[in-house]
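Project standup — Tuesday

K.O.: blocked on the structure for the chain from last sprint. Re-posting the sequence here as requested.
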Amino acid sequence: MSGTQTLGRAIDILFVLAESRSTLTVSEIAEKVSIPESTAYRFIQTLIKNGFVERKGRGRIGLGLRIFDLARSLSQQIERELLTIARPVMEELTNRTNETTVLFVRAGSKAVCIENVTSRRLIRMSIENGRVLPLYSGASGKALLAFESEKTIEEVSKMFPAETNKQTLLTQLEQIRKDGYCITLGEVDTDAFAVAAPILDTQQRVVASLSVAGPIHRLNDDVVSSTIQYVKEAASQISQKLGALI
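H.V.: unblocked you, prediction finished:
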């Protein structure tokens, strides 16, 4: 087996463990990667030695701390690149709409604001960096959730509050995927509207949502139509700069 093939098998094992979201036995790993159990065992021993996987109880294998350190570093790198690309686009979007522009990323079952450009209007929305919202409430969160995997949506759905109609939300998410944007009125703040669109990476995965938010009293048909257009264009522009094929 060549060095490239060896690396490929090791990466396959890491992906299998990541996708399982649990621990697996050597036999289960071998079956999923389609290699002999003895071969899987040798790869796993090497990965354990380097901290990428760990033994998690009797006969169980799980991801090691080092892989999480790498994931964290990669996430921070992507976030820095995202902010560098997004900031000037957000400033232009705020100039075009005269409303506050915000950038949210997913963190588990939450949406977290990592950047904002506040409107200069006297009456305006103000959203600070670090603001946390549930994925199932508000345009920013829903624009993220709608483009996540079915498994993620199902997991988040288990956290819905009692007053949230799950089927209604799933229908909304389907519509968001079809339209490419989400608009909410008074959902997070009773006096505010928000329009959000997803930002995609080179693998067509959602990495963030871009939103415009402002007071509901400024909304009319023309404002809604133009804001949706501007937000979708801006999100697409950032996605393309990240390498997405749009």
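K.O.: great, moving the ticket to review. Residues 65-97 form the longest helix (33 residues). The chain has a mean pLDDT of 87.
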